[in-house]
Amino acid sequence: MPTRVAVVGATGRLGTQVCQVIESMPDMELVASLDSHSDLHDMLGADLCVDVTLPGVSSQVVEFAIAQGIKVLVGTSGWSADRLAALEKTLAATPAASVYIVPNFSLGATLQMMISKTVAEHWESIEIVETHHAGKADSPSGHCCSHGRRNRRGPA
Description:
Number of domains: 2
CATH architecture of the largest domain: 3-Layer(aba) Sandwich
Low-confidence stretches: 142-156
Helix content: 25-40%
Order of helices and strands: EHEEHEHEHEEE
Radius of gyration: 17 Å
CATH class of the largest domain: Alpha Beta
Strand order of the largest sheet: 2-1-3-4-5
CATH topology of the largest domain: Rossmann fold
Number of strands: 8
């Protein structure tokens, strides 16, 4: 039986890509493609909710999915330490819930992390700056990951 997936933020650049990947997977079924303004009840029946919305919407999506017993994969950036702490309390009170937060799905971010680790061994200090297209609503992505700096003595 395929995993039934709802994508919230499906009309954005990343959401469109996520929907295409899900539709290409034989063991997954896209059951709902929602935008940031859709009725969240439209995701009912999904096994997994992929949230790729906006920072101001993301926590509502996650809270709704948890309340409905739907597992969540969050690809929305901008989750603050306070918001994460509140989520941890919710998860502690809901042991069956499952939420995985990946604040940056981009290939550029993945390369940035890999390159940072490699070059940190060769330079005292280095900074990699992430930039986006002019229309990106939540630029820079990844909140705490937008400017990576590391040296041999540890994180800066």
